[in-house]
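[audit] Reproducing an earlier prediction to check determinism. Same input, same settings, fresh worker. If the tokens differ from the archived copy the diff job will pick it up downstream; this log only records the rerun itself.
[audit] input (94 residues):
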Amino acid sequence: MNLTERYCHVDDFWQGYAPGYRQQQLSSGMRQRQRAGQLHESEIMTIMIHFHQAHYRHFKAYYNEHVPVHLQREFPQLVSYSRFVQLMPRVLVV
């Protein structure tokens, strides 16, 4: 499966999962902003899944060495490594 197909599957999953997840957050009292970021949740999940299928042992090396070089065209709105790490908790529950 290539990266575009993987992203499409992840995005389809997110589109079905997100409304229930956001409703659960509201009903549990966890209020969070719902601003659109530079990277969509589907893009974050796709990069994280791709890391697990890559031959890197450390995420920092993968993100700093592989992603900007090989995936810049697929993800033109890439953020810095430290910002990406801050965004990861948005999708870790999923």
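[audit] rerun output stored. Observation attached for the diff report: The two ends are 21 Å apart (CA to CA).
[audit] end
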